Amino acid sequence: MSFIGTVTNYITDVTPAEERTATLSTVFPFMGIGAMVGTLSAGFLESTFGFQVVLLFSFCAELIALLFVAFFVKDVLPPKKDDQTKSILSEIKSGASVLFQDNTKGNRKRLLPLVFSDVVNMAFIMCEGSLMMLYTNRPPFNWTSNAFGFYAAAKQVAGVLGQVFGTGIIIKFIGTQNVQTDFTILQIGVSMNIVVALITAFSNSSVMLLLAIPFCFLAGPAQSAGGSLTSKLVSSDKKGSYTAFTSFITTFLAPMISSFYNQLYSSSVTSGIPGLVFIIHASALMAVVLLLRFGKQGLEDDETYKQEQGKGKGKGKVI
């Protein structure tokens, strides 16, 4: 979570505001490709060489990434004089003040939905693999681990393609690139995840479950839009502290929600309603959509929005 936030902050620091969503949608797919390759290769490595080799492969990949950062990524913002003495706790407090004390231009109601969305999504990501494997390993699916691996990879591919092409398609349809556009893209993405969760919950055959894959395409651009939104709502000098705070909140809450999902699935399978956990997740995502709608209100009268509207190609549509 912290790694993704740091990457997002760096990209938005070196990219003009009106180009951030498109730029992030170009970079983030490589993370999806990595996840897809990892999903497909992990099973092969484990069955062929053992679990230790999987961990060694992961360690080497992380080490290569760190070496690239150390030797090729340059600082773009000068460090503050007090950065050397600033503790992690004070950094988190500083980030919390951005959300709860600094309500400049009504940003609080726009940032809170993003934090809630991150927590809900991360909680499900943490348990999605194990839940889906258990869910598809029972009737009426009876999938093997290889079949599940291909299904997970197909969803990743759809998400990657959505980030690469879906973002541009949506922006072209809306006709402008600004804060409201990012909110709209995020709303569409979360709504598509609701559809995926409901299809999964009510599937009674493998064919029906596969219908969820195309909706991952339209869900893909949401991650880029979320990163772009944060960069536009939080000033560059506060993004580091804000990311530290939101990462702390997500890391603290997501595992608890994930554990609840796992416990819920165990009890619901016993009760004969294994899809209940996906219905609950869809309900949480519906709350995210409503909060995003609330956060989007008033943008037409915001001076920052008006300035960005002038940079766009036309008048945006409110969804």
Describe this structure in words.
The chain has 319 residues and is mainly alpha-helical. The chain has a single domain (2-74, 92-299), classed as MFS general substrate transporter like domains (Growth Hormone, Chain: A, Up-down Bundle). The protein has helices spanning 2-13, 20-49, 51-72, 88-100, 108-136, 145-174, 179-202, 206-210, 212-219, 222-233, 236-271, 276-296, 303-311. Helix 5 (108-136) runs parallel beside helix 11 (236-271), helix 5 packs antiparallel against helix 12 (276-296) and helix 7 packs antiparallel against helix 10 (222-233). The radius of gyration is 20 Å and the shape is globular.
CATH 2nd-level architecture:
Up-down Bundle
Rg on CA atoms, Å: 20 Å
Number of helices: 13
Structural class: mainly alpha
* Largest beta-sheet details: none
Query: Roughly what is the average pLDDT, rounded to an integer?
Result: 81
Q: Per the principal axes of the C-alpha atoms, what is the gross shape?
A: globular
Order of helices and strands: HHHHHHHHHHHHH
What tags apply to this protein structure?
319 residues, mainly alpha, Growth Hormone, Chain: A, 13 helices
Write the layout of secondary structure elements.
Blueprint: H1 2-13, H2 20-49, H3 51-72, H4 88-100, H5 108-136, H6 145-174, H7 179-202, H8 206-210, H9 212-219, H10 222-233, H11 236-271, H12 276-296, H13 303-311
Helix pairs in contact: 1-11, 2-3, 2-6, 2-10, 4-11, 5-11, 5-12, 6-9, 7-9, 7-10, 7-12
Give a quick precis of the structure:
The chain has helices at residues 2-13, 20-49, 51-72, 88-100, 108-136, 145-174, 179-202, 206-210, 212-219, 222-233, 236-271, 276-296, 303-311. With 319 residues, the protein is an all-alpha fold.
